[in-house]
Amino acid sequence: MSPRWNPNPDVRTGRHVVCHLHVHLVLVTKYRRGAMTGEMLTRCEEIMREVCEDFEAELKQFNGEEDHVRLLVHYPPKVQLSKLVNCLKGVSSRYLRKEYDTHVRRYLWGGRFWSGSYFAGSCGGAPLSVVRQYIENQQRPV
Q1: Cα separation, 96 vs 74, whole angstroms
Q2: CATH number of the domain at 12-136, please?
Q3: For the chain, which residues make up each domain, given as ranges?
Q4: Listed residue (104, 124, 101) closest to 29, CA to CA
């Protein structure tokens, strides 16, 4: 596609779709235990970046603390968000437990690294009030 059609690299284009999808994800360790070290957070980012690439998504931003991580992911419309999250949690859990086994076992038990729940918030684009007003002001065909 020519640059004049897509001047914004965050806007994805396909045969039948033009989209701009971003999600803010928060993943919390099991029992909200402070199991993550700085080194583990760095490794977690690497793992999650690879998982996103496998889904043709892009990890735009990553940060975290001892008991949670925050991600900003740009993803295509064909990606089912729950599958992406399950893969992010599953793959990172496997690698982090394997690579930092001794440390992780001090904080977490039962074979789980992440809590079963997560936060996902859509973001980007216009605020809801602006979208509502735009739709409301569209002319109806006579």
Answers
A1: 24
A2: 3.30.70.1290
A3: 12-136
A4: 104
Give the closest residue to 33 by CA, choosing from 67, 65, 63. Answer: 67
DSSP bridge pairs for 29: 114
**CB atoms closer than 10 angstroms to residue 106:** 9
Cα gap 50→34, rounded to integer Å: 24
Closest CA to 114 of 4, 35, 20, 16: 35
What pTM value is reported for the model? 0.86
- The two structure tokens encoding residue 138: 């569209």
Could you read off the pLDDT of 32-89 as tens digits, one per residue?
999 999 999 999 999 999 999 999 999 999 999 999 999 999 999 999 999 999 999 9
The residue type found at 88 is L
Sequence-distant (6+) residues with CB within 8 A of 90 are: none
Tokens 């690299």: give the residue.
Answer: 9
